[in-house]
Design a protein that fits this description.
100 residues; alpha+beta; transferase; 37% strand
Length: 100
């Protein structure tokens, strides 16, 4: 899990989790804590996430936290090893939309 600040009062949240730990409720708990930290302690206005088109589980987690689907980014993330590019969705949550 990481929370990286770009500029101003905006940040991006993302993570990588081994398949051995999928569907155990780990990420919703971790994301909740990151959102609390970002909005309550760091005073962020916006937190966003980029999600690969096929990552249905993360899309559902973000929607449960009231993230809004804001756009579709074609061929957004390209990997130098495989040469393949993935489409990504961008989700955003404003501090006024966050439900503690």
């Amino acid at each position: 899990m990481y929370l990286s600040e770009f500029e101003g009062k905006r940040a991006e949240v993302g993570y990588e989790l081994s398949e051995n730990y999928w569907r155990r409720g780990i990420m919703p708990e971790a994301i909740r804590e990151v959102l609390l930290l970002g909005f309550s302690q760091l005073g962020l206005v916006r937190i966003q996430a980029f999600v690969s088109a096929e990552n249905v589980a993360l899309k559902e987690i973000l929607k449960n936290f009231n993230f809004k689907e804001e756009g579709y980014l074609r061929q957004f993330e390209c990997h130098s090893v495989t040469g393949k590019c993935k489409d990504m969705w961008v989700y955003g949550l404003l501090n006024t939309e966050f439900q503690k």
